[in-house]
Write a structure and sequence with these properties.
Helix 3 links the parallel strand 4 and strand 5. This protein has a single domain, classed as Aminopeptidase. The longest helix has 15 residues. Helix content is about 25%, strand content about 35%. It is an alpha+beta fold. Bound molecules: coenzyme A (COA). The site of coenzyme A (COA) has 20 residues, from strand 4, helix 3 and helix 4.
Length: about 170
């Protein structure tokens, strides 16, 4: 009988890297986008951020070279705005959200932003908890912002300060 797999023999973890999002990633991005949000961004929405928006900073999280997640940011007048962030569903819940969000906040620090802001659905408890771990707090609501579900948007903001961040999960 084969021996049960011991902890030290566990499958190797994928090699995680965060880099620039590229147009060649867009098929994989759209596949994640469509299963992540009731109203998905279109290819044109992403292309505008990649090609035309000079305030945009777009990140790709890669696991063993394959696209595992992405984030679309603006760095504008000292504020980092997180406009879109998502991970491949099968990779959620194991700490990669921390990795991706930290990479966003590092962009903000590199761009001399003092504050980060974002909007999130009140029902998105996983994302809200993640943001709170990095110092984001609710600063307001936009009534009926999400037309698909008629939810308000919770507006959150955080001071960009590494000392507020939790230790990365192992
Ligand atoms: C939001 C998202 C990027 C988070 O990534 P993730 O891999 O699921 O999260 P992680 O495993 O890194 O966990 C990060 C934190 O999220 C929270 N979290 C994760 N899974 C959770 C769950 N099942 N229940 C409650 N909170 C949870 C926790 O606060 C966790 O940190 P902690 O365990 O140190 O307390 C990911 O879930 C996602 O892509 N969701 C769909 C798209 C989306 O909603 N984007 C945000 C739009 S505003």
């Amino acid at each position: 009988m084969p021996k049960p797999r011991e902890r030290s023999e566990a499958l190797p973890r994928p090699r995680i890297r965060v880099g620039r999002l590229r147009e060649a990633d867009l098929d994989a991005v759209l596949a994640i986008e469509r299963v992540s949000f009731p109203t998905a961004w279109t290819r044109d929405n992403f292309l505008y951020e990649l090609r035309d928006n000079r305030f945009a900073r777009n990140l790709a999280l890669r696991a063993d070279g394959s696209l595992a997640g992405y984030a679309c940011l603006w760095a504008l007048e000292g504020e980092l705005k997180i406009n879109n962030i998502a991970l491949r569903p099968d990779l959620r819940g194991s700490g990669l959200g921390h990795v991706l969000l930290r990479a966003c906040l590092e962009v903000g620090l590199a761009e001399s932003c003092g504050e980060a802001t974002l909007e999130v659905r009140p029902s998105n408890l996983v994302a809200r908890r993640l943001y709170e771990r990095y110092g984001f707090r609710e600063i307001g609501r936009r009534s009926g912002y999400y037309q698909d579900t008629r939810e308000d948007a919770v507006l959150m903001a955080a001071r960009l300060d590494r000392s507020l961040w939790p230790a990365l999960p192992r």
